[in-house]
From TrEMBL, chain A:
Protein name: Uncharacterized protein
Entry's transmembrane regions: 28-47, 54-73, 85-112
Keywords: Membrane, Transmembrane, Transmembrane helix
Highest taxon in the source lineage: Archaea
Automatic annotation (TrEMBL), chain B:
Name of the protein in question: ABC-2 type transport system permease protein
GO molecular function: ABC-type transporter activity
GO cellular component assignments: plasma membrane
Keyword Protein transport applies: no
Amino acid sequence: MKNNHIFLIVIFAGLAFFEIASILNKSVMMAGILLAIITGMVLGIKIDKDPQKYTFLAVFTYSIIAWVLMLLFTKDGKFLLEAGIAATSLLTGFAIMNFLFNAIVGSFAAFVTCNISDNRTD
Amino acid sequence: MNISKIRIVALDEILRGVKSKHVWFFSSALAFICILAMHYSTSLAFLFSDSGKIPFTYISFMIILIIGPFFILVTAFDSISNEVEKGTVRYIISKIDRASFMLGKFCSLFLIFAVLTFIVAIMGQVYTYSSGNAFDLERMILFWLFSSLYLGCFISIFIFVSTLSKNNKIAFTMSAILLGITIYFFMQGGNEYLRYLTPPYYAFAVSGTMKNTTGEIDYFNMIRNLVSMLLFIVATLSIDILTFKRRDL
């Protein structure tokens, strides 16, 4: 399987798991970190070259997509958009910082998995 | 695993290793900063509720908790990756088994920092005595135990990153990232259970006892956190050894 295919599958799986976490009423922050770690582990095993880069991009992409979907299609998002540009920008800034941290956590998980895994190419 | 081989590796690292001066320098710098903070804390006595009883042990404990991990980072990040990068690890592991080599590396760093924190603990008692208060040996021993174990936790996790890395550059970057992740997890607060995976959680849990110079010591809390830290070190070292055994060198 090509790296791009795995990358896309992981993005869709991430979105699905985010939705499951919100349905189960779990902490989104906690779910985001755990999901990033799982994504890193999966990509660390499946991708031979630069799994850290792919994990970072995958986690960041699905988090941004989830954030945009939340803004557009949920009551909370509508409430936030109605609060004005200042509140939306502030919360989006905090959210992006959180996504960056999650992406870094995922990258580290990919680094560890890639080096422990037997499928290393070096 | 062989105790005599661990001792040989540890002694070699402490006394004759290429990096030993570097490690001694940074560990001494940490101790010096702690002593400096205790020395100048008398000028800032108004910050404390009882200016006659400045908590010297608490001041040095907080300094070790906050800046100690950064000193560990600069001393421990290349402990294994440096040997891998230079290729010397192949000669060593042909004579010494991997587990002994790994534990020797850990013990060398742990002993150096344990000695330096012991000196800081004694200096804390000297300052307490010179400010007109009685010696508090219980807190001195607790300070030494917790500081050493706290730094030991970080030594073991940075050795883990060093074991995984191919060269020093990757080891340093990944160690810095891991330190950032640890702080991020610890700052989550609330009911997030990821903070239980971080050594600062256990160390900050006992900082109240170090601050309270007159009250009773909560031994249950102390022992619980002490055992947690020990378990953390044992678990991380086990992962280190397993990872090093799996690595293709």
